[in-house]
Amino acid sequence: MKLGIKQYLAGLVLLFVSTLFVPQAVSDFARAESTDTPVPAEAPLLLAIGLLIILAAAACIGWGYWLTHRVGGARTANPEDDPDEPLLRPGYGADPSTEASWRENPLRRRDPDGRA
């Protein structure tokens, strides 16, 4: 697995787990306010647990971001990296007169005078 991906995934899982605590606590507070009843005793605890989980998720995601974007870190080889990519850009690589033109495609119809 690429560097930092585990931290991103752990952060996302923690964010999902926090949805088990925070909405319930907010609902308890809102219900108590709307019905003029006392707030249930577990509501502040649920809110605190949910906020701690959200902070842990933010720390995991930040750690993953730091691992993948740090300056001076060893860059891992990526199979999508093409060492010849700059040569494929116009202006790089060999002189166009020495290379076959990109228009010379065997599937293109030829003009009567032999040009593509």
Gyration radius (Cα, Å) is: 29 Å
Largest sheet: none
Query: What's the overall average pLDDT, rounded?
Result: 81
Q: What portion of the residues fall into strands of 2 or more residues?
A: under 5%
List unreliable stretches of 5+ residues.
none
Cα(first) to Cα(last) distance is 47 Å
Helix content: 40-55%
Number of strands: 0
Count of separate DSSP helical elements: 4
Overall shape: it is: elongated
Q: What is the ordering of alpha helices and beta strands?
A: HHHH
Q: Structural class, from helix and strand content?
A: mainly alpha
What characteristics describe this protein?
116 residues; transmembrane; single chain; mainly alpha; 4 helices; elongated
Would you kindly provide a written description of the structure presented here, covering whatever features stand out?
By secondary structure, the chain is mainly α. It has a domain of 65 residues. Helices cover 52% and strands 0% of the residues. The two termini are 47 Å apart.
Task: Describe, in short, the structure shown.
With 116 residues, the chain is an all-alpha fold. It is built from four helices and no strands.
Q: What is the topology?
A:
Elements: H1 5-18, H2 22-35, H3 42-69, H4 85-88
Helix pairs in contact: 1-3, 2-3
Region (Disordered): 74-116
Transmembrane segments: 43-66
Keywords: Membrane, Transmembrane, Transmembrane helix
